[in-house]
## 1
Amino acid sequence: MTEAKPVIVFDSGVGGLSVHRAIRERLPDLPVLYVADDAAFPYGDWEEGALVDHVVALMADLVAAHDPAAVVIACNTASTLVLPPLRARFDIPFVGTVPAVKPAAERTRTGVIAVLATPGTMRRDYTRELIRTYAKDCHVRLVGAPDLAAIAEAHMRGEPVDEAAVRAQIEPCFIEVDGARTDIVVLGCTHYPFLRTIFERVAPWPVTWIDPAAAIARRLEAVLGAGREGGTAPSFAVFTSGRRPPPRLERVLARLGLPVGNLTGAARTPK
Ligand code: DGL
């Protein structure tokens, strides 16, 4: 059997694993190189021009080393900014992850929705344009949570979570406008689905949480098309810092079919 080209699933950290999980369910045999740019985490704090330059340069190295069939930018903070320069520079399909404003506007019953994201995604023109285009008849509360992605990273490493801190970060999503309360919260950062059980526990009232991962997996499948080769290329995860993840996270990665590998030229071979 020939080695199929891998698909790169890319995030600033382990949040993109929520997207990888959905891709795995839909395309179990797809070789995936999961790239966590942990050396640069969190993207939510970066100045826009610097983040574009950083991601394009890193992608140039990854594309040269791995010749991917497609790349999934499993990060809202990056996708809302770098998809146009990536598509202009590389002749491969890029699938992005952007806040699921449209499905939220279609599903809300109260007309009050919240978008929970990083401060970077909250500031983006792209996000504001999504709201203007798809949710102009809704009241939308856009919340930039400064600490949630880092809390999710710590949770994935097996560290305890301060639930009061989580509650403080999500609380601004819960509003009442003319007697109507928020009924949908868009998870606008790929790290957040890993905190969802805690969100449900500490939320002031029950809401529907929208996670776009399954839709991204469907989009990837459509982009790859029917002619996709089967293959035996290994799937694995790399961390740009070169640090080995703690044992609990390594077990999570192993369960997701992603042993930890190297970023260097030898990256096609897992450690
Ligand atoms: N997982 C990323 C996202 O979807 C962002 C986390 C960060 O680096 O700030 O936005």
## 2
Amino acid sequence: MTAELMDGKRVAAETLAAAEKRVAHIIDQTGVVPCLATVLVGADPASVTYTQMKRKRCEGIGMRSLKVELPESTTTEQLVAEITKLGQDDAVHGILLQHPSPPHVDERAAFEAIPVGKDVDGVTFGSFAHMWFGEAGFASCTPGGIVRLLDAYNVKIEGKHAVVIGRSAILGKPMAGLLLDRNATVTICHSRTQNLGTVVKQADIVVAAVGKPQFVQGDWIKPGAVVMDAGYNPGNVGDVDFDAAKGIASMITPVPGGVGPMTIATLIDQTVTAAARQLNMQDA
Ligand code: NAP
């Protein structure tokens, strides 16, 4: 068996094309241009690239983006004040604080300054609680993008056994919550899990979010399982041994071009939804 490749680039492009139509409709009906504010503290090169990419995608579909760049020396109080100001600005519909902030900043305090309605990156306690209780809120973007990709490929989630490897606040934990909300039976694995391969072997859906190149072995995969590789390691390598797993899985995400593009598409789509909600547009 050779697994079908799940083309995140294509699905992300379709997601953005649909978002572009919604943006045009919002502008047509209200004259307001949906806007994402990206907040970056310091000048970490990878973070600079990520925020640039996000703004470029916004502008590419007719949205506005607001660049907020603060010096490395910014204090928690200054950052919280800046984010609070954006939260109060009616022209800003979504706020993204690029992670990681410099170590002296209390990043949690800064995240919590984002109003839940503008938390399009799904990083606040409020968004997490909404997601966990199955209420309308914004998902953390990478797990949200993974669910969208599963849906785009008509993968049945309900009743399936999903094994999530990793329990970080931005990936593993929200991933488990989203899959649970879709009625999967969910197992969360982490660094203290024993007999990891045996646990993974039971999965109909595997989500790898470990941060270790080619960590998930081909012989851990149950024949016919669907494998979602969230990993993104130096050299464009995922967390799954792709060559081994693709001969056993029924579907698999490549790295790059699988989960990655879905993350930004989810962020942009959630920003359009945030704008529609703030403008009381039920049909956008
Ligand atoms: P993280 O915060 O470092 O979390 C890694 C998780 O893996 C932890 O929960 C850790 O367990 C677990 N783990 C580590 N070693 C393990 C082992 N030997 N066996 C089982 N579990 C183990 O990483 P993250 O932020 O969630 O990111 C995970 C991966 O996704 C990275 O490759 C990252 O680059 C990628 N990523 C991609 C995107 C995207 O847009 N595509 C976005 C974000 C992240 P403990 O909790 O026990 O330590």
